[in-house]
Amino acid sequence: MTDTLASEGELASVCEGLEHCGAGSPVEERAPLRRPPNTGARLWGRVRSKILRQKMDAETVQSKNWQMDVIEMNGIKVEFSMKFTGRDLTLKRTPSKKQSGVFGVKISVVTKRECSKVPFVIRQCIEEVEKRGIEEVGIYRISGVATDIQTLKAAFNTNGSKDFPVQLSDVDVNAVAGTLKLYFRELPEALLTDRLYLPFLEGIALSDPVAKESCMMHLLCSLPDPNLFTFLTLLEHLRRVAEKEPVNKMSLLNLATIFGPTLLRPSEESRRGHIALLSDLWSHDVMAQVQVLLYYLQCPSVSFSELKRSALYSSDG
């Protein structure tokens, strides 16, 4: 996998800024600089294409060094670098040493501290995305600027829900979306829990639709209350995003592909505890994780109280 030094948002901003070079009043005795239209967009397309097609040889991968490259078009030059980072590092869930924050802290701890059903960071990011980014093309797919995401992370970690110092409206909405994804990715345990990981994969593989529905709903009811409240809140949000697919180009499948592995990927300790998981193909696991989230996204909306009533009725029966 390749990690770029600059995110899509950063490169796009650079291209947009360079696109306007020479605009305004010309310098005396010098003709204004003229470039073909859409140079920035075309240049970014070329950069993105090269990054996606780049293949690193074994020696480069093992060295862990940054690989530099330059692309130039119509007087605009973009320098970028990338290096290989193994998925064992990029996908590893590492609990935060500072339990007073919110990132890397168990969701039950955060909601209890905040006296809330859904963590403040999730509610705020969802609200901002729905306010400004729900019609943004590629929302949740396009990366935000890494420095902006880290700034938001630090602000949420330091201040929680009180005296929040950063105005989300002043930050690029893709960075807000990236902060939400980062929160779920850094949870010490997957939102759908390590304990239920294998049952979720087994349930989604059932061929009988009636048995599958019964199993998947039962598993949903088995989640701890903070996890279930948060998951239902996220489902409703992602459905609202998908309703704008004709504009933002984000379908339920696209969103499930982005969020599925983040919400289900188990912690390292859990993976070591399941020998079967270690022998499975990683890509097969990812496909199953996507299908689990897609299943719930395609289900009719259901409330927390309805799920709990259903679970109580089933246990009484």
Describe the SSE topology.
Blueprint: E1 2-4, H1 8-19, H2 39-53, H3 58-63, E2 67-73, E3 76-84, H4 87-90, H5 107-114, H6 120-133, H7 146-159, H8 173-185, H9 197-204, H10 209-221, H11 225-243, H12 245-248, H13 252-264, H14 268-273, H15 275-279, H16 282-298, H17 304-316
What do you see in this structure?
With about 325 residues, this protein is mainly alpha-helical. The protein has 17 helices and 3 strands. It has helices spanning about 10-20, 40-55, 60-65, 85-90, 105-115, 120-135, 145-160, 175-185, 195-205, 210-220, 225-245, 245-250, 250-265, 270-275, 275-280, 280-300, 305-315, and strands spanning about 1-5, 65-75, 75-85. Strands 1-3-2 form a 3-stranded antiparallel β-sheet. A hairpin with a 2-residue loop joins β2 (about 65-75) and β3 (about 75-85). α7 (about 145-160) packs across α8 (about 175-185) and α10 (about 210-220) packs across α17 (about 305-315). The radius of gyration is 22 Å and the shape is globular. Residues about 1-10, about 20-30 and about 275-280 have low confidence and may be disordered.
